[in-house]
Specification:
Number of helices: 6
Structural class: mainly alpha
Shape: elongated
Number of domains: 1
Distance between the termini: 10 Å
Order of helices and strands: HHHHHH
Radius of gyration: 22 Å
């Protein structure tokens, strides 16, 4: 769903409250509680149950990280494709031929630039080897992307 607030560099990063402030902390805390319980159980001898508990919460922690990173990687691939198509229509000759030199982070940074600013930003990104963050900081008129994961 689209957001109604104006998006700019300062607020373009998105937090999912359920994930960032509930699921991830609960899973991480549970993993460390299980690890602490396992370490405490070692003083009375090895506990297979406590060891298994650590393994299960370790798997839950890995699953929690994967559940967030996989969609972000897919989103970045889609953005890369969208931006390459956009650059093919916006750029002329020599600059268009150099778009293959842009890395994924640069392409992701360019998604916030309006069409009028793209040629200058692409040239700067290529010539000055700007990072995606540096590209986003140079955008004058922010083109919001409110449909991201």
């Amino acid at each position: 769903m689209a957001e109604t607030s104006v998006q700019v560099f300062a607020n373009h990063r998105r937090f999912d409250p359920w994930y960032h402030f509930f699921v991830a902390p609960v899973v991480l805390i549970s993993f460390f509680v299980a690890l602490w319980g396992f370490i405490k159980s070692l003083s009375g001898g090895f506990s297979a149950w406590a060891a298994w508990n650590v393994i299960v919460w370790g798997a839950a922690t890995a699953l929690t990280v994967i559940a967030r990173t996989y969609p972000l990687r897919v989103q970045d691939r889609i953005i890369r494709l969208e931006e390459r198509l956009r650059l093919a229509t916006l750029l002329d000759g020599p600059l268009r031929a150099r778009t293959g030199e842009l890395d994924e982070r640069q392409l992701v940074g360019l998604r916030f630039a309006p069409d009028a600013e793209v040629p200058a930003l692409v040239k700067a990104a290529l010539d000055e080897k700007l990072s995606g963050e540096e590209i986003r900081k140079r955008v004058q008129n922010w083109r919001p992307d409110t449909f991201r994961v």
